[in-house]
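> @MW can you paste both from yesterday?
MW: sure, first one:
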Amino acid sequence: MSVSDPVADFITCIRNAIQARHRKVDAPSSQMKQEIAKVLLRERFINNFKVIEDDRQGVLRVYLKYSGDDQSVITGVKRVSKPGRRVYVGKDRIPRVMGGLGISVVSTSRGLMTDREARDAGLGGEVVCQVW
């Protein structure tokens, strides 16, 4: 079965794994999903990720991060820009998540970056998702 929005499927996999208290989650790999995982790793929302090669497109394994009392570091994740409704913002209108406690992942002309990095670089773009 083909998925019409692979990024939303990836975000849902992460959300479901956190609710089930899994330590890792596997999803079909793509360049966009790998870049989202890099941003999450850079912002310390996940422990690590790796791409497992197979005959087809590969598998992206994401190792989720939990605190000492077994609470997930990611409390929420939301897809903002969807295939039916793309959300583009200018450099002055990039949304803050939870007053700066969360991040917006923004797809800019220089690649995927957080809302803070995009503001510092003076770039706008498509708001892919929000993580808090």
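MW: second:
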Amino acid sequence: MLFKIKCLTTNIKYNSNKSESKDQFFQNEQTFLFLNDKLTHSGYFAIGVKDNLSIEINQPLNPNELDEFLGQKGEWKFGFLTYDLKNDLEVLSSGNNDGLNFPKVYFFIPETLLKYKNGRFELVYGNEKYISQIKTILDTHGDISQEEIELKSSLSKESYLSKIIKLQEEIQQGNIYEVNFCYEFYAEQAKLDPLSLFHKLMLNSNAPFSSFGKFNDKYVISASPERFLKKEGAKLVSQPIKGTAKRGKSEEEDARLKEELLGSEKERSENIMIVDLVRNDFSRIGKFDSVLVEELCKIYSFKTVHQMVSTISCELKEGVRFSEVLKATFPMGSMTGAPKISAMKLIEREEETKRGLYSGSIGYVTPDGDFDFNVIIRTFLYNESKKYLSAMVGGAITSKSSPEDEYEETLIKISALLKSLKL
């Protein structure tokens, strides 16, 4: 399948000449990360690298090294975990094609950290010059040239349907209950302006866990609506999403679609399966009888979709380390299925693209050891050196899934994302 879209390029006229330009900022700063909560109008800018921990795909994870780096007192840490970290946490492997080549794990202590709230910037520490530069970047709009990029699907419709039928046979045989199957839309030799794409993505989304990051030649351009894990003190929270419906064109249609999602037996069963999986994960690291389902199948409305979200929490046992939390919970069940290990083996067998950072997580760890991490979905990933652009999409497959309907849902999801690539 081929999608031709008008893609944003780097010919931009800026409204301000008073500050360093966007291109100069990108050239000078090889690493930065903007975590942006559109619902609360807040976020963080982490700029530059004072220290970092980078683990490449072919390097094994050293849990003690990870815990030592993230446990440094008095330091903020920002970074990401790719889906392929699963291979270090369980006896699994990843051999599919990877056009992006992100590190398996990357965290950095920024040289400058800015906090953003309701249009106001606070310098947490570092160089205050970045406040005016970041304001210019966020406010930049202008004439944007365009060129066509061809986004290709990694699977034909026939191949997709065939794979879903195979996965449903596994479900019928009792090997799994649910599996999240994904495939890739990609472009080679793609020239684009990542910042402009992020601007457009934000205009089309009120995603509460969006992010824009540059890690040398690799970019994350994300409108994620899903939280993976948040820790405050001893409390750990997860908010898996399973269940999606488009927004209506009128208030009446919108309300009807929302009610249909809430009442969908299929969507609720998918969501509840993942809730049970998270409850089981949390029981391994939570204090006895502390695992709680705070919200079950609640509907949250975003700019383009309604989502069914559940909230699960626990109180962590004393002395649980970050690596132990990952061992118990990663990857997130909403992106694997249940049972998790069996589902991941089938994902590797049937998918044709290495997920990499997609369905991984990006976030931060505070100086006191609290943290907040999202789920990397609704995301563009871009390798500037290879000029490779990727946007993956998928959904949960159960015995009740209609292969045709699941395929159409993936096209709805990718179409919503591709709106940001059009002028």
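> thanks! Residues 2-231+325-421 form a domain with the Anthranilate synthase fold (CATH 3.60.120.10).
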